[in-house]
Design brief:
Strand content: 15-25%
Helix content: 25-40%
Structural class: alpha/beta
Radius of gyration: 15 Å
Number of helices: 8
Largest sheet: 7 strands, mixed
Shape: globular
Distance between the termini: 35 Å
Order of helices and strands: EHEEEEEHHEHEHEEEHHH
């Protein structure tokens, strides 16, 4: 069975993490909510999240680890040395990692965006360019860097596209779930 962990740090964008959890669980994926500092996480918009676990070596066992954004949460993700080491080990092992909004700054801090394509919340590419000057910023809603096994996305409104992209890189067919959640209807209205 496919296993995904979503890492929640204090100050995270709740919608960006919970959308991934919701969409993937609807698809039958085993998804763990993992707190960076503890099982109770206070999000950026005063939503208290109760996680299943706290960051530890088990992150190495997941098929994909995803980060929601939020400036405060992203700063905490980037500064956490234990998490940095685990994510670097995951990358070396050829495992998928994902980050959206401000959280690609954490991937950049870990050295995972070097020579990789990515996207982020508008403006954060400037901070990323200082840390990872060889990273290649794109303005797409989601960006997949196949070689680096990295998925990135822009911000709160792109959370559903991010969740579907994660499912797709893991080899899951999103046709049915996109229809059931009216995502195909939404995209047809553009």
């Amino acid at each position: 069975m496919t296993k995904v962990a979503v890492v929640f740090a204090p100050g995270c964008e709740e919608i960006e993490g919970l959308t991934v959890v919701d969409v993937l669980r609807r698809m039958g994926v085993e998804v763990s909510m993992v707190g960076l500092e503890g099982q109770l996480v206070h999000g950026a918009h005063d939503i208290e999240l109760t996680c299943d676990a706290v960051v530890d070596d088990q992150l190495l066992d997941y098929d994909l680890v995803a980060f929601p954004g939020g400036r405060g949460g992203a700063e905490k993700l980037a500064a956490n040395k234990k998490l940095a080491s685990l994510m670097q080990q995951r990358s070396t092992a050829g495992k998928w990692n994902a980050a959206m909004c401000a959280a690609p700054t954490a991937l950049a801090a870990y050295g995972l965006l070097d020579n990789r394509d990515y996207t982020c919340f508008p403006g954060f590419e400037k901070a990323i360019a200082k840390v990872a000057p060889t990273a290649h910023f794109k303005e797409n809603i989601t960006v997949v860097d196949q070689a680096g096994k990295i998925v990135t996305s822009r911000g709160p409104a792109t959370a559903m596209a991010y969740a579907f992209q994660i499912a797709e890189v893991l080899g899951l067919d999103t046709t049915k779930i996109k229809h059931e959640m009216l995502y195909d209807y939404l995209m047809a209205q553009k």
